[in-house]
Amino acid sequence: MTGITIADRAAELDAADPLAHHRDLFIGSQNDAVRAYLDGNSLGRPLAVTVDNLTSFIRQQWAGRLIRGWDEGWLGVPQQIGDQLGRVTLGAAAGQCIVADSTSVLLYKLARAAVAARPERSEIVIDRDNFPTDRFIVEGIARERNLTVRWIDVAYDGGATARDVAAAVGPQTALVLLSHVAYRSGHIADVPGITKIAHDAGALVLWDLSHSVGSVPAELDAWDVDFAAGCSYKYLNGGPGAPAWAYVAQRHLPTLDQPIPGWLGSADPFAMGAAYQPADGIRKLVSGTPPILGMLAMRDMLNLLEQVGMPAVRRKSELLTAFAIEAVEELLTKHGVVLASPRAASERGGHITIDHPAFATMVPGLWEDGIIPDYRNPDGIRLGLSPLSTSFREVAVAIEAIAGRLESSTGAAAVE
Ligand SMILES: *Cc1c(COP(=O)(O)O)cnc(C)c1O
Q1: How far apart are CA 29 and CA 19, in angstroms?
Q2: Would the CB of 103 count as within 6 Å of ligand 1?
Q3: Shortest-distance Cα residue to atom 5 of ligand 1
């Protein structure tokens, strides 16, 4: 021991953090009943400005403009927010991103469009540790289209690697669907490397950025990605059930054949025409009426991310996860806790997972005490560190609380 406690280190890091003051922009960050909110990667906190913006939208836009609002601008909102998202966090030029549906539905639309673009091929590659919806959607499409799923096995503290993908793809691969940041381990995939391997095999790629967008910068255009989708209620603070977003590379837009052709993705919705004629560009991915109210909070967070800049956000994210690992090693390793995330900052997204058999029963008690991490089956606690709303102090408070519980449950001093 150095004599400097984890709490002291947290105080030093908070004092030196150039982004620390942004915490005050989020409602509830000063709420003493929540001592540590480490689940911003599952549901981000609301920004205070969102209350005003939602209220004024309801009063002035909805109540004031009524049905005229659609013609006066609402119809363009999904693409405007998509373009901002592309510019601020995704490295995507305008005209390739749109907000619509849930992540699950967008993954379905994109994966179906991808396999339709490779009709002579029979396989989809995905990893076994991908988020359930990604696996279920792929299995559903495989049943529907008589395709085979080729599974990649990954390490408990990692994710799919370029080598795994090289071994899995071949002349039958239509699509590779993987996550940029793995939802459990936090592993960052080599998106450009894997994309190139898939392309060299003649396959298309669909990347799920749910656990990276807003914390780990992406360069979708430069990485030559075909399709991507992601969540907006995690690091984009869009609120419970906020609609997701999708990216389709410009080169695929003219031929994209999406499986849910609805009237608002048609070329001229208000012509009420006899036959479906898809809109030009990314709007063809839309099916039904866009959930405008649901996408306003995300725009507030994008404005903040644009102002702060993704490089600074990523820097803080790396410091938060590095500190969490330092605290785990100092306080929890001696109790048998194992880090289930990559150690190298360059391979780690905005969260880490730690494993211990006692965690399966520990989380409800932590929540009661105002310490809110996530439980991940079978014995993982996931610590999600949302860069602009999480303090180093919260990390210290949570890990000290976990240490306290492990000490009292084993009832014995740990092996030093
Ligand atoms: C959170 C998450 C989703 C969420 O899907 P929804 O349809 O929006 O509920 C999908 N994929 C991954 C990898 C996620 O982390």
Answers
A1: 14
A2: yes
A3: 103
**Probe ligand 1: pick from 208, 231, 233, 374, max atoms within 8 Å of CB?**
231
Residues 333 and 87: beta-carbon distance below 8 Å: no
Is 234 designated active site?
A: yes
Asked about 284 being catalytic, the answer comes back as no
User: Omega of the bond prior to 357 within 30 degrees of 0, cis?
Assistant: no
Rounded CA-CA distance 267/272 in Å is: 10
User: What is the atom index within ligand 1 of the atom nearest the CA of 131?
Assistant: 13
How many other C-beta atoms can be found within 10 angstroms of the C-beta atom of residue 113? 23
| Distance between Cα 93 and ligand 1 center (Å) | 24
Buried b (16+ CB within 10 A) or exposed e, 211-235: bbbbbbbbebbebbbbbbbbbbbbb
Can you list the alpha helix ranges (DSSP code H) found in 73-161?
77-85, 103-116, 132-145
List 299, 348, 382, 405, catalytic entry: 382
- 102 CB under 6 A from ligand 1? yes
Q: 233 an active-site residue?
A: yes
Say which CATH superfamily domain 6-46+309-415 falls into. Aspartate Aminotransferase, domain 1 (3.90.1150.10)
The tens place of each residue's pLDDT in the chain, 416 residues long, gives 457 999 999 999 999 999 999 999 999 888 879 999 999 999 999 999 999 999 999 999 999 999 999 999 999 999 999 999 999 999 999 999 999 999 999 999 999 999 999 999 999 999 999 999 999 999 999 999 999 999 999 999 999 999 999 999 999 999 999 999 999 999 999 999 999 999 999 999 999 999 999 999 999 999 999 999 999 999 999 999 999 999 999 999 999 999 999 999 999 999 998 999 999 999 999 999 999 999 999 999 999 999 999 999 999 999 999 999 999 999 999 999 999 999 999 999 999 999 999 998 999 999 999 999 999 888 999 999 999 999 999 999 999 999 999 999 875 444 44
Whether 210 is in the pocket of ligand 1, judged by its Cβ within 6 Å, is yes
Q: 73-306 has which fold?
A: Aspartate Aminotransferase; domain 2 (3.40.640)
- Ligand 1 pocket member 195 (CB < 6 A): no
Q: Give start-end residues of each CATH 3.90.1150.10 domain in the chain.
A: 6-46+309-415
Is 131 among the catalytic positions?
Answer: yes
Whether 134 lines ligand 1, by a CB cut-off of 6 Å, is: yes
What residues does CATH 3.40.640.10 cover in the chain? 73-306
What tokens were used for 367? Answer: 């929540």
Supply the pTM of this predicted model: 0.97
Q: Is the CB of 104 under 6 A from ligand 1?
A: yes
